[in-house]
């Protein structure tokens, strides 16, 4: 205490220039800070000086900041496995250009402050979506899975062939799910509906280069909706899943798929009929209870999709528009959730909520038909789940509470005619606050990074969902209470995290991003998963419990692992370093929102 008092006295007795030496355009702004800000900085330096012999690292957003944005750096002090964290607010720095922060002996990476840091980024995740296309793939330039598929679980059609070519491979395997596809489609439609002017036209409908007078994001939405349409060939006939974990037989080009589901190698895959009842899961069964979770997603996608596609693909728009109400009615007849199925392993999408899907489906049908009974139903469903249940808790099963945020709440909160508007605004705020409270009351790393997200499988998807909810809430209310957490979640994905890794592959401006994600593209040496959002950190216990996952090869970041979670840039780590199609699609809205905010501030 005496030493720290002497240091404090000394710091206030000498010019600030002698404490922090300006470097080029680095910290000149610090010289003019208010006394309060100077005290904060000095306390930060004192904290670091107590471990003067330890390593010091400064984490910042790798792509940079908008001039008016909240800006935080995290100073990591210590060594492997024993890090202390200090949070430093430098939001007063608004001068456009390249900058660095220097605190003690630590120097941050250079970062840009500009109104243009998000320009074009809303289109960037579409690179990965095109890479994930099944049927015809513009990235590899060939076709795959042309004989999909054969119906199973249908009471009268089991064994029959059905044409369900198309869609996206879910992740680095070749499986395809209606639930993740529908969420990806809706998230892209949300971004396009709100910010249509931000999206470019550089690719054709089939994903090959060349403009076609249609925004590229609409082409991608169309690709997904066409597959959902195929997965619903007749009224009341919906399919949930194409292929299963018998696919997991090693990395290979999709066109060279060696999986054999009983019809011969690469000769068609099983298509799971939505029964609303348990289906095979390894040696056991999943615990499906109804149809609402999946057909509610069909309903919202078909209703909104018919509007989005109408100017560009009118025939498909009309076709899916007629199907929306049938999907919703099946959800009413068989309430409950539908989980996916696996045969060899215990890993499935274990969704156990469904009223959020029916809420959004009802709302989009209200917009499509102007029938107020749908609005009333949406409100009723929404009240049954005020917050998405993962928010504020430590753990959950894989995709248990999916989608990871409730867009229906946002829709009802923004509906001027809805008498319950303030109620749904409050629901959005409560979910955000639960995550915020977990952050500020968590371990030091969680407090410093304001990171209240549970470190479960696909934690980056949860991070993106909470970031989106923060943005939507702030835009609806002009309430900036949670702007610090919003900024921290944004920057976590952009490299301001313990590992200093931008979680989006090859994102323009990023200096360090996953170079060896879990993908056949890496093993076949044909490029990287450009634009893909990797899964993100998991608890050490989860990593240790998963089958076949390891840290061999790659970059393991052992020096920087905090005591709460782990991340590895290794092809062998499918738990933290595998991109997902749905998580990537969900990035598009935040990127578009920030670019739009920058343009509106000019």
Structure keywords:
602 residues; alpha+beta; 4-stranded mixed β-sheet; 3-stranded antiparallel β-sheet; 19 helices; 17 strands; disordered N terminus
User: Any idea what the radius of gyration is?
Assistant: 25 Å
Sketch the major β-sheet.
4 strands, mixed
Oligomer: single chain
Q: Helical amount among residues, as a percent range?
A: 25-40%
Q: Outline the low-pLDDT stretches.
A: 1-32, 48-52
Number of H/I helices: 19
Shape: globular
Strand order of the largest sheet: 10-13-12-11
Provide the β-strand percentage band.
5-15%
Average pLDDT number:
91
Could you give the distance between the termini?
49 Å
**Which structural class is indicated by helix and strand composition?**
alpha+beta
What's the total count of β strands?
17
Structure at a glance:
This protein is 36% helix and 9% strand. The chain has helices at 2-13, 35-49, 126-131, 178-194, 216-230, 292-309, 314-321, 324-333, 355-369, 372-383, 407-413, 421-440, 444-448, 459-477, 483-493, 520-523, 540-545, 581-585, 588-600, and strands spanning 55-59, 72-79, 82-89, 97-99, 102-103, 106-107, 111-113, 136-137, 142-143, 150-152, 176-177, 239-242, 270-273, 280-281, 284-285, 538-539, 565-566.
């Amino acid at each position: 205490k005496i030493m720290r008092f002497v240091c404090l006295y000394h710091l206030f007795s000498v010019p600030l220039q002698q404490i922090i030496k300006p470097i080029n355009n680095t910290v000149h702004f610090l010289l003019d800070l208010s006394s309060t800000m100077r005290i904060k900085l000095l306390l930060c330096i004192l904290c670091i000086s107590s471990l003067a012999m330890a390593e010091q690292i400064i984490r910042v957003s790798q792509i940079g900041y908008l001039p008016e944005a909240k800006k935080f750096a995290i100073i990591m002090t210590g060594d492997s496995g024993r890090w202390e964290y200090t949070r430093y607010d430098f939001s007063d720095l608004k001068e456009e250009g390249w900058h660095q922060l220097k605190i003690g002996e630590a120097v941050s990476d250079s970062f840009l402050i500009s109104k243009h840091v998000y320009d074009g980024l809303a289109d960037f995740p579409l690179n990965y979506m095109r890479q994930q296309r099944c049927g015809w793939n513009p990235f590899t330039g060939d076709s795959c899975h042309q004989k999909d598929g054969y119906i199973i679980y249908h009471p009268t059609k089991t064994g029959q062939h059905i044409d369900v070519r198309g869609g996206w491979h879910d992740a680095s395997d070749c499986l395809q799910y209606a639930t993740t596809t529908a969420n990806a489609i809706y998230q892209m439609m949300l971004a396009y509906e709100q910010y249509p002017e931000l999206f470019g036209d550089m690719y054709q409908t089939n994903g090959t280069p060349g403009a076609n007078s249609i925004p590229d994001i609409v082409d991608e939405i169309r690709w997904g909706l066409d597959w959902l349409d195929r997965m619903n060939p007749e009224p009341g006939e919906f399919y949930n899943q194409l292929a299963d974990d018998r696919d997991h037989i090693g990395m290979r080009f999709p066109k060279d798929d060696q999986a054999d589901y009983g019809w011969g190698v690469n000769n068609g895959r099983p298509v799971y009929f939505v029964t609303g009842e348990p289906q095979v899961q390894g040696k056991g069964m999943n615990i499906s209870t109804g149809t609402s979770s999946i057909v509610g997603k069909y309903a919202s996608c078909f209703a909104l999709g018919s509007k989005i596609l109408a100017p560009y693909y009118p025939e498909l728009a009309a076709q899916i528009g007629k199907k929306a109400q049938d999907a919703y009615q099946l959800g009413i007849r068989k309430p409950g959730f539908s989980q996916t199925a696996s045969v060899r392993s215990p890993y499935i999408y274990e969704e156990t909520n469904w009223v959020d899907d029916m809420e959004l489906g009802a709302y989009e049908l209200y917009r499509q038909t102007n029938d107020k009974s749908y609005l009333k139903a949406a409100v009723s469903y929404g009240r049954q789940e005020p917050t998405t249940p993962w928010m504020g808790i430590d753990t959950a099963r894989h995709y248990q509470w999916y989608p990871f945020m409730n867009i229906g709440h946002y829709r009802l909160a923004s509906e001027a005619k809805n008498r319950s508007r303030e109620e749904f605004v409050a629901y959005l705020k409560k979910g955000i606050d639960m995550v915020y409270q977990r952050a500020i009351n968590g371990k030091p790393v969680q407090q410093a990074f304001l990171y209240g997200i549970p470190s479960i499988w696909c934690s980056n998807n949860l991070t993106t969902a909470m970031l989106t909810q923060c943005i939507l809430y702030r835009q609806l209310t002009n309430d900036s209470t949670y702007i610090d957490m919003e900024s921290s979640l944004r920057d976590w994905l952009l490299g301001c995290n313990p590992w200093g890794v931008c979680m989006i592959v090859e994102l323009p401006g990023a200096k360090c991003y996953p170079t060896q994600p879990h993908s056949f593209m890496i093993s076949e040496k044909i490029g990287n998963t450009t634009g893909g959002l990797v899964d993100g950190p998991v608890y050490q216990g989860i990593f240790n419990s998963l089958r076949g996952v390891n840290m061999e090869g790659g970059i393991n970041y052992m020096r920087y692992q905090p005591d709460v979670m782990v991340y590895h840039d290794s092809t062998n780590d499918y738990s933290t370093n595998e991109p997902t199609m749905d998580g990537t699609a969900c990035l598009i809205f935040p990127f578009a929102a920030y670019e739009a905010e920058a343009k509106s501030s000019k």
